[in-house]
Design a protein that fits this description.
The protein has 262 residues and is an alpha+beta fold. The protein has one domain. It is built from 8 helices and 8 strands. The strands form 3 sheets. The chain has a 4-stranded mixed sheet with strand order 2-3-1-8. It has a two-stranded antiparallel sheet with strand order 4-5. The radius of gyration is 18 Å and the shape is globular. 27% of the residues are buried.
Amino acid sequence: MDKIEKDKLYLIWLSYKDFASLKENENQIMLGQIWRKVRQEMTHCFEGFQTNLDSIAGTFGKINLNTDPHQACGYDPTRKALVFNFWLLFFDLLNDEWCIPSPPFVTAGKLVHEFDHYCYFRDHGMIGKPEKEFEEFDKINLGALEERALKLQMNFLDNCRKNLPDISRSYGMVVTKWSKKGRPIEKRISPFNTTKEQMSEFISSDIKQLTDVINRVKDKENYSEMADENSGNICKKLMELMSLPIAIDSKKKEYPSIAIKM
């Protein structure tokens, strides 16, 4: 495990224990270094796709990170803000048994999805509109908005197959004890290699899940509540595997945030 991966774990612990400390200069520097690596790993995912990462980064400018478990990511047109869950930007689940670094195509796919939301809101003149006006717009347009973004995300993931490396190296991890300074002192780590063919199968599974979501949107199921619940479940399990347990409070709406330059 290299320094960047160790620093990710430290910042996950710090966000859990004392989120405000993330704004200290040394932690801001660390967070910026981690993001630059994540961004670099995503670059190849955009090869041959209609939208590039530089355009997305240039449009949003920054990412607002918080620990709201109800939302993995989203674009808020009222605040003109791209928002990501701090933990889910950097880690994901594997079979509900391991924490793994978020695969680049997963994070990149979320960015493509939210960028399409931004374009939809922009084209309908909704950027910066008051929240009440946005809520009325959402009642009418949510289905079309989500269906378009989900289809674009699926196309992006399908395009990623052409850009996969022959072998991807990663690791699964479970932390059972932390030091007082935020370093895992008892943990299980399982390095693994994934072939191009196996990674393509993972992408196929993700595309199938997105297809199921589109069908639910078409059937006018409550997409927002479903997405919130799914995000909450992933966060809860992820942090459980990190030995940093969280409680999901549906009534809590305000979470501290920190912004990083894209």
